[in-house]
What we know:
Elements: H1 3-7, H2 11-17, H3 21-25, E1 26-31, E2 37-43, E3 49-68, E4 71-87
Parallel strand pairs: 1-4
Antiparallel strand pairs: 2-3, 3-4
Amino acid sequence: MTVKERGHMSNTDILKEHKLLDSFSESTKYIPEQYSEVITDTLLSNGFKVKVKYYVDMENSILKFSEKNSLSNKLFYRNNIINISIKK
Length: 88
């Protein structure tokens, strides 16, 4: 293919020719991006012990998909889990 012919090709055609279209036409993001965990232990004056554990579930997520001008965006929202333990 000559330079003159390539000048008349669209960007999409050039990316298809080099098998790069998929990597440039798709965006994937995770929210939150990384694992986080917060643990709080509290001993109350009335004798109750409260333990709260808050963390991000890295295994399950909710997908939000949008497509605009042949570009696809994938947003994965990860679930937050809270465990509460109360003991006397």
